[in-house]
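Collaborator request log, item 7. Partner lab (contact: R.S.) asked for a structural prediction of 8.9 kDa family member to inform their binding assays.
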Amino acid sequence: MRLRSYTLILQRSFEARTRRRTYAVSYRHRCKLGMQTTLMALVLLLVFQRSLSKIPSLRFQNLRCDYDNYSLSMGGYLRLADPCVRLVCWYYRKELTVNGCPAPPNSSDPDDSPYAMYWPHCCNSSAT
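Returned to partner:
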């Protein structure tokens, strides 16, 4: 009888230690997963914040359209080579029109140099 009770006590003691060890392992595993999740969230936040900072600003003030580093007067336009676009300011409509490639027919100016590299001439060399 004593041997049985001693065996039963040892068995219960082993089960209790195993339960504690299993709980400790699962706790460490959960902590590790939590750290990995936190690190991944931090990386994604930094990447997303950087992509948001590339969005240019657009403001309409003093009869001008201010877009990125450009300032266009009301009704004015600006033709760029890189990116190959034309910006047109419509102040009263609070609108900035951006024309890209392919350029609409008859969009080139007769006063343009034959060697011009800005919009719409850059459309021929761009990969869009």
